[in-house]
Amino acid sequence: MLIVEGMPLLYLELAVGQRMRQGSIGAWRTISPYLSGVGIASLVVSFLASVYFNVINTWALWYLFHSFQDPLPWSVCPLNSNHTGYDEECEKASSTQYFWYRKTLNISPSIQENGGVQWEPALCLTLAWLMVYLCILRGTESTGKVVYFTTSLPYFVLIIYLVRGLTLHGATNGLGMFTPKIEQLANPKAWINAATQIFFSLGLGCGGLIAFASYNEPSNDCQKHALIVSVINSTTAIFSSIVTFSIYGFKATFNYENCLNKVILLLTNSFDLEDGFLTVSNLEEVKNYLASTYPNKYSEVFPHIRNCSLESELDTAVQGTGLAFIVYTEAIKNMEVSQLWSVLYFFMLLTLGMGSMVGTGTAILTPLTDSKIISSYLPKEAISGLVCLLNCAIGMVFTMEAGNYWFDLFNDYTATLSLLLIVLVETIAVCYVYGLKRFESDLRAMTGRTLSWYWKVMWAFVSPLLIVGLFIFYLSDYILTGTLQYQAWDATQGHVVTKDYPTYALAVIGLLVASSTMCIPLVALGTFVTRHFKIREQFSAA
Amino acid sequence: MLWALFFLVTTIHAELCHPDAENAFKVRLSIRAALGDKAYVWDTDQEYLFRAMVAFSMRKVPNREATEISHVLLCNITQRVSFWFVVTDPSNNYTLPAAEVQSAIRKNRNRINSAFFLDDHTLEFLKIPSTLAPPMEPSVPVWIIVFGVIFCIVTVAIALLVLSGIRQRRRNNKGPPGVEDAEDKCENIITIENGIPCDPLDMKGGHINDGFLTEDERLTPL
User: What is the predicted pLDDT for the residue at A61?
Assistant: First the structure.
């Protein structure tokens, strides 16, 4: 997927930016005036993405600030009102889940119940946006220096975590997940997930790559850069997955052993066996013995005995915010000197998030500062300030009690279809509208390198077909599943339940997708109409 | 005769203390879980100590200062180790109310635990909830302090950058016109007059050549 899809598309975007020397709107307008809608669509997608993405930085800041306590606040459950036991919700779920759902998000039972804006996340969101503003304030002059830091620190922390992770008890169980299951490779869903992952991790279609490339020297060898960047991207992904899997194995082993201990305790207490008699090794035989000797009592106790299995613990695949804030914190609280590991981890998360925000911010600002209309009225600092302020104001939605549900909604639906469509139109535009031969000669004039046949084939045929395939798959998936659903936290039961989206949420989803995809045809139509009228005017004047 | 009396006393004891008796509490110890290799064996001497600790706790209750070790009865001792106990009044006729026993045990829980090197989890009194220590709450939550520090640093940095940007722009506006921003992508547009850039014609560094006529003298005065 990397070779077939990632590298060609990355090279294409870098080359377009370097050649046109403008942000996304201007670049596509130069290729063809009908296609400036592509640039606008990129801008809209980047804007929507930046609105919801900074909320992750908010949460990272929140956890970072809370890591300076002993013990860590998510490692112990708070007491209930009369101090006789632990809080009920915390008992049913785990302390890390409780801290995430109750203390951080204060989540409501469903997306309809909005609740009010909560001041603690709102403060952290404001701070997060101030930090982003600080980084993109001066444009690429400052972002270049910031990015040196935000890119190198995560590697440093990952190496530390790699060493720590591999030495944890039970880490090898998680690393066993690395062996690819051959039958999964035959499943087309796996390939589709791989294609989507490459697509979004490289940031294609957001306009950020074009914006950054437009600041390059014209003679810059963007082919070499495209290759290096995509290879490093994938290597980093594999590297961080080693760390993740070892931490995962540690957590799964820990939970499995806890589960076994609970079963042992339950049996010891119910049958008044000698303390320490039941161990992990003789558990099964003793269970059978008890079942045969005291059948009545055993059948009473049996419903409470959970079947502990290491495989099921490992199989609970989590991704996204669940992985970062629940699974990792659970693993961290069991390590020694957990405050240090926690601070390191959330600082790394913060720098990664800031790096992404800087990229998205540049993708938004470059077209705005390039356009003569806006930049003649306002200086660069004011434009970035206004954009940050607007984003922060809209982002307050995500600090409400139902905010996490809206976040998931934005996360799942903002970028998927729109980016696929944008990149498809980009590839077709460069190859067929602008002309592959013309682009090739432009590149040769700029960089002095000839375009090899591999890139030509990829750009003209393979990548567009692949994207069309992905697009069709996602559309059919959405249509076939009927109503879209989301995961809601049930405080009374202590785990997530699936609920349907209400109609207005579905309307918002439709609006999100439409606002970016409709730009392309609408602007094309608009340009056509205005041109048509201009030509008519010229004819009638003559 | 003596045998009959002994039999009577044991029967009364058996009636007072049995599983789920009125005012009886079940106790459960997990010695090996708590102490591992250093675990001691639970024998009659340990039971004696337990009865002594319960009697000690009851003596702290007003009106019960006369409680003796013999008034604490244990029964149904299992290998777990678990057993039931009751506290009787001095006449050994009835058991003391559960509420009194419960409050006495709760008040002295730490002493009882430490006598056996155990804690609330490994020495359990079923139906007597233990009072958990509340977590330490500092007066100002720590996170607000850290937040405040970082917030101030970021605001100051932004203010500095914005001010320096404004100052630089003001200096540029006063300086030679036509020179654009440093990080511009296009080449600097330098106003050109007859192929000679205007900048070097600035009088700042050069000497005035008096051979040339100044502006006023070109037109000879009348």
Answer: 92
Q: Which residue has 């590298």 as its token pair? A: A7
Do A114 and A401 touch, CB atoms closer than 8 A?
yes
Angle at B144 between CA B142 and CA B147, to 5 degrees: 115
- Tell me whether 0.90 is exceeded by the ipTM: no
- pLDDT for position B219: 58
* Contact list, B165 vs chain A (CB under 8 Å): 137-138, 379-381
Average pLDDT for residues A512-530, to the nearest whole number?
85
Query: Looking at A58-62, A159-163, A277-281, A284-288, which range is the least confident one?
Result: A277-281
Whether the CB-CB separation of A23 and A210 falls below 8 Å is answered with yes
Q: Inform me whether the pLDDT recorded for A118 exceeds 80.
A: yes
> Could B33 and A275 be called an inter-chain contact, meaning their C-beta atoms sit closer than 8 Å?
yes
Describe chain A by its helix, strand, coil percentages, rounded to 5.
75, 5, 20
* Average pLDDT for A418-429: 86
**Angle in degrees, CA A339, A345, A349, rounded to 5:** 140
> Is residue A187 part of an annotated ligand binding site?
no
CATH topology of domain A5-541: Amino acid/polyamine transporter I (1.20.1740)
Query: Among the three residues B105, B126, B147, which one is the final residue of a domain in this structure?
Result: B126
Q: Give dist(CA B112, CA B61) in Å, integer.
A: 16
Give CA–CA dist A38/A518, Å, rounded.
Answer: 10
- In sequence order, what are the residues at sequence separation of 6 or more whose Cβ sits closer than 8 angstroms to the Cβ of residue A230? A2, A6, A7, A10, A202
Tell me: do B59 and B117 sit in the same domain. yes
**3-state SS, one letter per residue, for chain B:** CHHHHHHHHHHHHHHHCCCCCCCCEEEEECHHHHHHHHCCCCCHHHHHHHHHHHHHHHHCCCCCCCCCHHHEEEECCCCCCEEEEEEECCCCCCECCHHHHHHHHHHCHHHHHHHCCCCCCCEEECCCCCCCCCCCCCCCCHHHHHHHHHHHHHHHHHHHHHHHHHHHHHHHHHCCCCCCCCCCCCCCCCCEECCEECHHHCCCCCCCCCCCCCHHHHCCCC
Q: What is the pLDDT of residue A127?
A: 93
B87 and B66 share one domain:
yes
Domain residue extents for chain A:
5-541
Mutate to test the interface with A, among B106, B143, B171 (most CBs of A within 10 A): B143
Compare CB distances from B129 to A84, A123, A381 and report the shortest one's residue.
Answer: A84
In a domain, B5, yes or no: no
Domain extent, residue B77, equals 11-126
User: Searching chain A, which residue's CA lies closest to the CA of residue B182?
Assistant: A141
Residue A96 has pLDDT above 90, yes or no: no
In this structure, how many other beta carbons lie within 10 angstroms of the beta carbon of residue A432? 11
Task: Give me the residues of A, 184-223, that contact B with CB < 8 A.
Answer: 214-215
Are the C-beta atoms of residues A449 and A443 closer than 8 Å to each other?
A: yes
Q: Are A224 and A28 in contact (CB under 8 A)?
A: no
Backbone φ, ψ for residue B4 (5° rounding): -60, -45
Q: Which amino acid is at B33?
A: A
Any idea which residue has 């003649």 for tokens? A376
Residue A496 DSSP SS3: strand
Domain membership flag for residue B35: yes
Contacts of A291 (CB under 8 A, 6+ apart): A298
Choose among A421, A396, A424: nearest CA to A515: A421
